[in-house]
Amino acid sequence: MGNSHQSRFSPDFHIPYGTGKTSLESSTGTYFGSMKMPTVKYQRGDTVMGRWPGSSLYYEVKVLRFDAKSQLYTVIYKDGTELELKEQDIKSAAGFQTRSRSRSRSRSPGRRRSRSRSPARTTRRSSSRTAAVVAAAAITDSVPPSRRDTKLKDTLEVRLSPLQQTKAAENNSNNKHEKKEEKQKEENNMANKVNETSEAKVEAEPARYNLRRRKDDGGAKPAAAEPEQQEEVAAKMAATPTATLSTPLDFGGKLGAYFWLLFLPAWVLFLVLHVNLKDPSLTNFPPPLPPLEALLDVQAFGFVILWILFQAVLYILPVGKLSEGMPLRSGERLKYRTNGFFAVVVSAVAVAAAVYQGVDLTYIHSHFLQLAVASFLISVLLSVYLYVRSRYTSPEQLALGGNSGNVVYDFFKGHELNPRIKDFDLKFFCEMRPGLIGWCLINFAMALAEMKQQGLDAPSNSMILVNLFQLLYVVDGLWNEEAILTTMDLMHDGFGFMLAFGDLVWVPFTYTMQSYYLVSHPNPLSLPALTAIVILKLVGFYIFRKSNSEKNAFRRNPSDPKLSYLKTIPTATGKSLLVSGWWGVVRHPNYLGDLIMALAWSLPCGFSHLLPWYYMIYFIILLVHRDSRDMSECRRKYGSAWDEYCRTVRYRIIPRVY
Ligand SMILES: NC(=O)C1=CN([C@@H]2O[C@H](COP(=O)(O)OP(=O)(O)OC[C@H]3O[C@@H](n4cnc5c(N)ncnc54)[C@H](OP(=O)(O)O)[C@@H]3O)[C@@H](O)[C@H]2O)C=CC1
Ligand SMILES: CC(C)CCC[C@@H](C)[C@H]1CC=C2C3=C(CC[C@@]21C)[C@@]1(C)CC[C@H](O)C(C)(C)[C@@H]1CC3
Fold first, then answer.
1. 87 vs 379, more confident
2. 288 preceded by a cis bond (ω within 30 of 0)
3. Is the four-CA dihedral 329, 331, 332, 337 of positive or negative sign?
4. What's the Cα-to-Cα distance from 331 to each of 157, 214, 548, rounded to whole Å?
C-alpha cells in the first residue's frame, strides 16, 4: 500500500460496505495491502465513527484501508461515499454510541427529514442532512449553532473524484445489486439506494466516490483551498496515473471520436452547400461539390482572424465584472472577465459604423462557404494547439471526461479543462464571443442579403423574427454571462476539438440556417401566425431564463434568502439539489425552455423544407444526449441523493412525457 492511489483505484482492495474484515488480515497483525501495519489503531473492516469534514458530527463508517504515507484512513459511508480521514477524526463505535444516544435522541436519522425546506437551512445543516443520507448515528457538537454555521460553511467542502468501478462491482448483476441495496435500506432507511422506478433500474449502478476536503460550493466564500490541502491534493494527483482520473467514455468511445471528427465537418459542408440550392430538398442529395480551390479563400480567412482578434481585444479590456467560476478539483476558483454584454454592444456599434461607411455585409452570404472553411481550419489549428499543450499540463488541470489516454478521443473531447494563456481563458472566450456574436452578425448579413436578393426595402417578417429571436438568445446569454460558469461545458468538459469546432464553426455556420434559408425562400407570415410564434418564443424564453437563473443563483449562494422557499435534497458532497421550483418540475427545465424557443425559430420558415428545421432536430438530439451525460455525471457525483432526486422529479425534460 505504498501508493495510496494505486490501492484506491485497484479492484483488489474493494470492500463493499458490510462485508467485514478481509483475508488480508493475518493472525499476527493487520496487513493493509502488502505492508504490515501493526501500529495502526483501526483495522480494515472495523465499524467506527468518522467525523464529517469541517463539522463535529460523527457517522458510522467502515474502515477500508490505511495509507501509511499520508497517515489517512479511507472509510466508507453507508451510501457508498468514500472519504479519507485522519486518525483523530475517527472514534471507536462502542464508547461513542452511548454518548451519541443520550445527546442526539431528537435528531435520530430515522426521524430526520431527508429534504430541507430552504437552501439557507441546507447550508446551515448540510452536514446533518448529509447524515440523513449516510448516517446511522450523529451527535450535536459543543460549538454554538451560529458559530458552527460559519465553520461549516467555510470548511465543509469536499472534493469528489469518481472512482473506477471495481471488477467485482462491474460483475454484479442487477439482481445482486438490488439485493445488496435492499439490505442496505434495511440497515438505514435513509441510505436508500434502491431504484424503485423502472427507469432508474435501467440506469447504471451508482458509482463509488472518493471525497476529499475542499473549499467548495456556491455558498462558501470564494477562496482557494488551504495550502496544506492543495499540497495534499496535488501530491495525490501527481501520484495517480493520469489515465485513471477519467470518467467513462462518451460519444461512442474511441471509435466514435474518429467518426465525429470526420462527420461533423462533412455535415457542416453538406448543410452549407445544401442551403445554397434553389430547391434544398432531401431529394437533391448530394449537393454538387465545388472545386477545392473554391473552398479556400485567403481574404475570408483574414476576415475570420480579424473578427476573432477584435473579440479577443474586447474580452481582455478591463471593463466589466470579474466573476468567479465554480471550485475546481484543486479547490481553486478561476476568475473570468464577464464583459460579454459590453462586447456585443461594441460589436454592434462597429458593424453599424462599417455598414454606414459602405461596407457590404452581404459578402458574408456570398462567401459563406469560404468563411466556414476558414473557421474550420482555425478550429483545427486551435484544437491541435490545445491538445499539445494539454500534454504538458499537470493532471489536476485535466478534464476527467477527456482523459482516456487515447489521443484521438482526448483530442476530440478535450484534454485540458480550462486552458489559459495567462488570464485569457480560451474555452470561455471561444464559447461566448467570436462564434456567438458572429451568429448575430451573420443573421444580420442575411437580412441585408434578403433585402438585396428579394428587392425589399426592409427584411421580411419571418427574417425579422428569426433575427430578433436569436439576437435575444445571444444577448441574454451574454447579459447573464456569469451563469455559463455553472454549466456543464465550463465545469466538466475539456476544451478540445468538439467545443472549438462547436464554438467557432458549428454555432455561427449551422445555427444561422434559418436566416440563410429565408434569403432565397421567403415565407410570408399572417398576423395570427406571427403573434402565436412570438408568444411561443416568449414562453420558451421565460422558462429557459428563469430556470437557468434559479440554478445559477442557488449554486452561487445556496443560503440566498430569496431562494428560501425552495426545497432541496442534501448530497454527500455538501452541495444540495433543488427539488422544487423549476428544477422540481422536470430535471432539465432549462432544456425545455430552450427547445420551445428552437421551435419558435423554425416556425417562421414554414414547412416547405426540412432544412430550417434542422436546428430543432439537432437540438432535440443534443439535449437528450446532454441530459443523459449529465445524469451519469450527477449519479457519479451524488450517488443515492441523485437517485432520490430522480424518484421525486420523474421526468427529464418534458413534464409527463419524457
Ligand atoms: N443553444 C445551444 O446550442 C445549447 C444551449 N444549451 C443551454 O445551455 C444551458 C446550460 O446547459 P447545460 O450546461 O447542458 O446544463 P445545466 O446548466 O442544466 O447544468 C447541469 C448541471 O446543473 C446542476 N444541477 C442539475 N440538477 C440540479 C438540481 N436539481 N439542483 C441544482 N443543481 C442541479 C448539476 O451540476 P452541479 O450539481 O455540479 O452544480 C448539473 O451537472 C441550458 O439552458 C441549455 O439549454 C446547452 C447546450 C447547447
Ligand atoms: C459540435 C458538437 C456536435 C456540438 C457542440 C455543442 C456546442 C455548439 C454547444 C455546447 C454548449 C453550448 C452552449 C451555447 C452555444 C452552443 C454550445 C457551445 C450557449 C453559449 C448559447 C447561448 C446560451 O444563452 C447559453 C446558455 C449561454 C449557451 C451555453 C451552452
1. 379
2. no
3. positive
4. 9, 5, 24
Q: Under DSSP, is residue 8 helix (H, G, I), strand (E, B) or coil?
A: helix
Q: For the chain, what percent of residues have pLDDT higher than 70?
A: 69
The alpha carbon of 484 and the centre of ligand 1 are apart by a number of angstroms equal to 9
Report the SS3 class of residue 594. helix
Cα-Cα-Cα-Cα dihedral sign, residues 126, 131, 132, 138: negative
The protein residue with its alpha carbon nearest to ligand 1, atom 5, reads 594
What CA–CA distance (Å, rounded) separates 54 from 127?
9
**% of residues, the chain, pLDDT over 90:** 52
pLDDT for the residue numbered 278: 86
In this predicted model, what pLDDT tens digit does every residue of 24-71 receive, in sequence order? 222 323 323 333 444 688 888 888 887 765 455 667 788 888 888 778
Look at the alpha carbons of 548, 553, 558, 564 in this order and tell me if their dihedral is positive or negative.
negative
- The one-letter amino acid code at 474 reads V
Residue 387: predicted pLDDT: 96
Unique residue bearing C-alpha cell 453507508: 78
* Strand 47-51 versus strand 568-570 pairing type: unpaired
| CA 145 centroid distance within chain | 34
- Cα within 13 Å of Cα(236), Cβ side: 26
Amino acid at position 452, single letter: K
Residue appearing with cell numbers 434495511: 186
Residue 275 near residue 282, CB atoms below 8 Å: no
pLDDT the model gives residue 187: 34
Question: DSSP H helical segments within 110-159, as ranges?
Answer: 119-124, 126-134, 145-155
Q: Is the ipTM of this complex over 0.95?
A: yes
> Is the confidence at residue 159, as pLDDT, over 60?
no
Q: Is 340 in the pocket of ligand 2 (CB under 6 A)?
A: no
Q: Name the strand (E) or helix (H) holding 72.
A: strand 72-76
Residue 18: other Cβ atoms inside 10 A: 14
Give me the pLDDT at residue 70, please: 77
Lowest mean pLDDT among 51-55, 123-127, 412-416, 633-637: 123-127
Ligand 1 center to 552 CA (angstroms): 9
- What is the Å distance from ligand 1's center to 134 Cα? 26
Compute the Cα dihedral for 448, 450, 456, 458 and give only its sign.
negative
Q: Is the CB of 485 under 6 A from ligand 2?
A: no
Alpha-carbon distances, residue 231 vs 70, 213, 238 (angstroms): 12, 12, 10
Nearest 10 degrees: Cα torsion 107, 111, 116, 120: -10
Task: Give the three-state DSSP class for 577.
Answer: strand
